[in-house]
């Protein structure tokens, strides 16, 4: 049974397509400027026509409506939004020469769109896409700076050369991390020209704005308490949006004050007449409690005309044959049906095995080394010990000396499980995701000692970093393992990626929305735009059979392990929550 929402969204698609029949929509027919649509075809020949979701949100972005966008990882949200923002008319400031400072006149243009992203590499990925489109239009790169600039914390560069460039040559699109933005706001807020912005796009919004789930029967008092707790840890992004949307917030507060009762106050919203930039927020995991928070608490969202795009919401084929009253699975956030989920358990004695209860391997459609022609003839037995260059890229001599003398925080058998799987199964590029606070350099060091071609993920490195954005490995025939942390992988698009390794249970000690979403985002680095992929989570613990109990009321058997609090159990629960069954990794049968 499908939900009424899924049916409504399907009807919308059908209506859209029949309205535009017989011709399928093109980027141009949605409002993308012809020059950009043409450049897009030059730069990204595989992007032939917009997806149904892009068909929904691009016209809204162009027309200036607020948009809340939720759709699968890897389905083109950020890409489509970038194209739409590029197509928005450039803001020009009427410079009044008579009153201005003639020594340093204000620039005639200002920032049109502000894109807020959670980390540096995503900022550079978006900049790279824009650069390709600019080049596709036949323009030279000096022009790029007037079209897009990145502002991220990079030592003090963002406060020196970054700030100067922003002031003298404001870009059409400014892509920034919250930390760098807040530094600039403290130093010279005027440089950001917030008053003349046309649009603000917050990507991975649920990561940047933390909210708590609102329980159905929770009292107002408890809700208020939770709200105050969150307010004490107000995120930088919240503070930035409070400044940009101060007019909306004022109107929101006034509308609340005018409300006759509590219920009316809850639904009070600022009106569309308030002069403030269009607000766009997107994520594959935009949960209801965040929506409610945005509407009820912030005052940033307009009352009328906000477009809510929820994507296709079609159930993925790999999800368990189960339906909670027709609800779609959280695993729908992963677009591909061809992702294999594996969990390897490392026992105290160092033995490595598949998690108990994993389904027999079914590798149809999932890439592995044997599918890659460049690895044919390679003696797999010798792969793990292939000598590497003796260098440790990105690690300075002092760190190296320290690592050689100190014990690693990583469990050797966990790294060995990753090294072995990488050597035998990865054809080209894999990603290892560590916990947020873990040391990337130390993991790179340890893995290189094990013979793995490991490298810290960094799109700012001109050769190797760029190569991954372009979709080919830096050294063909020599697979690479990119190492990053949970906080730096959201939204990344690595076209060559076939495997994601996850060390430990994502987001720690409790299974809750945050850890489930973290797993979905990490897993969503593969299987993008219909491609296959493997997610291999490596956890330590005891590989026992899951506890099973029988529910008397319904006579059905269900999984229940309330007592075990180890990582194996937590991982089992996360997969349960996203309705995914782990499959065996053949190497560890
Ligand atoms: N219309 C299209 N046709 C073909 N490929 C597309 C299209 N739109 C985007 N893509 C490709 O899809 C890939 C993923 O895009 P993008 O990173 O925007 O996804 P996303 O939905 O933002 O993912 P995430 O939720 O993980 O951030 C990119 O490699 C892009 O080239």
Automatic annotation (TrEMBL):
EC number(s)? 3.6.4.13
Q: Where is the DEAD-box RNA helicase Q domain?
A: 25-55
Positions of short motif Q motif: 25-55
> A GO term (biological process) for this protein?
rRNA processing
Question: Which residues, by range, are in coiled-coil regions?
Answer: none
Instruction: Name the PANTHER family on file.
Output: RNA HELICASE
Q: What is this protein called?
A: ATP-dependent RNA helicase
Q: Which organism is it from?
A: Pterulicium gracile
